[in-house]
Amino acid sequence: MGYRYIGSKEKLAPKLIAEIRQKCPTARTVIDLMAGTGLFSLALRREGFRVVASDVMTYSYHHLVVNLKLNHAPKFHGLVGIVGEGSDTYNRVLDYLNHIHPISGFFTKEYSPGGNPLAGCRPRMYFTTANASKIDAIRQTIKSWYEHKLINDVEHSLLLHDLIMSANNIANIAGTYGHYLSHFVQRATDSISLVPCAFEEDDNIEGHEIRRGYAEELAPQLTADVCYIDPPYIKRQYAANYHILETLAREDDPDAIGESGLRPWRDQYSDFCSKVKIRNAFDLIIRQIKCNNIFISYSEDGLLPIEDLLCFLQQYGNVELSKIRYKRFRSNNSSKGLELTEYLIYLLKV
Ligand SMILES: C[S@@+](CC[C@H](N)C(=O)[O-])C[C@H]1O[C@@H](n2cnc3c(N)ncnc32)[C@H](O)[C@@H]1O
């Protein structure tokens, strides 16, 4: 199973890229400023673009490393002494992690029914106790390998990417990690298993840049022919809704607060989720980024009505709007309709 991510552009990517090519036929370098899952960056890479990708979330960074920097499995030389020699070390590394002895650690304590949350609330049910203790053992091993320099930066990102993807497959949630379900669904009772990543095999892996941080702060440092901005469009903060993935990516044991066990997430708060702050956030980016061709995705469900957003953007240059009908992101219990209109705004800065 893939990644259910609010606002993912995996399926829309071909249409978005066609629009970019049509408006900017000579463009070579594209900034994917709020890259999320990194799947739009991957689509750009496939199409031969040089990509500059960023996001405020750490899990996004690891996905981007895999999506932009790898076209085959890394060698994992440092682990040969642990997993044995042979041509297929990556698979043996995953096999080793898949058969690791479970331990009772942070995930077991905070996110499984066998735990005992520090906050004093009833045990949470994001993962079965068996899966949480397997996750504890896997994350501890990856962290220790990295600290002991047995794996390099790219290998580290790949293993964290694999762990995040596999944890997603068996998480007991209805779409996001805002809360867990009160009964384990069938999928969540399967044993967690790291699955080998299917690498893109093309040669376009040189020259891409990956950054971590607020777009508003990174903007002055970024230059490209085209900038694609895919901001949050609703109030739900990514840092709160994907807190467990962030904890896997950061490899820490934060305070797990309240019934839901959220990590402290204000350091990754997004101004794009606030009707009051969103204009200032756009302004900081559009004024400072060294790029004149700016494409912005927005949704019919967005905090700002599309007319207001278009009117606001007109102060920076010429604005054009295209509309795409699209399958709506829905939590399992959502009552909203199946389709919505996705907007793509082309702003030519003057
Ligand atoms: C709609 S999602 C992008 C989805 C992405 N295009 C994909 O296909 O996966 C919005 C992303 O913006 C990021 N984000 C929100 N505010 C941000 C900010 N101020 N600076 C950088 N990233 C931000 C979130 O972490 C989230 O990943």
Name the hetero compounds present.
S-adenosylmethionine
Number of strands: 7
- Give the C-level CATH assignment of the domain at 1-72 and 202-232 and 270-350: Alpha Beta
CATH topology name of the domain at 1-72 and 202-232 and 270-350: Rossmann fold
Q: Which sheet architecture does the biggest sheet show?
A: 7 strands, mixed
What is the subunit organization of this protein? single chain
- What percent of residues are in strands? 5-15%
Give the N-terminus to C-terminus distance in angstroms: 44 Å
Query: What share of the residues lie within helices?
Result: 25-40%
- Mean pLDDT value: 95
Please state the second-level CATH architecture of the domain at 1-72 and 202-232 and 270-350: 3-Layer(aba) Sandwich
Coarse morphology:
globular
Return the string of H and E elements. HEHEHHHHHHHEHEHHHEHEE
Query: CATH homologous superfamily of the domain at 1-72 and 202-232 and 270-350, by name?
Result: Vaccinia Virus protein VP39
- Provide the gyration radius in Å: 21 Å
Structural class: alpha/beta
Low-confidence stretches: none
The total count of helices amounts to 14
Widest sheet: strand ordering: 3-2-1-4-5-7-6
Describe the protein's architecture and organization.
Helix 3 (58-69) packs across helix 8 (153-169). The chain has helices spanning 13-23, 39-46, 58-69, 80-83, 89-98, 106-111, 129-147, 153-169, 186-189, 215-218, 238-241, 243-250, 278-288, 306-313; strands at residues 29-32, 50-55, 209-212, 226-229, 293-299, 317-327, 339-349. The mean pLDDT is 95. It has a seven-stranded mixed beta sheet, sandwiched between helices. The N and C termini lie far apart (44 Å). With 350 residues, it is α/β, with parallel strands linked by helices. The chain has a domain at 1-72 and 202-232 and 270-350: 3-Layer(aba) Sandwich (Rossmann fold). Helix 2 (39-46) links the parallel strand 1 and strand 2. 36% of the residues lie in helices and 13% in strands. Bound molecules: S-adenosylmethionine.
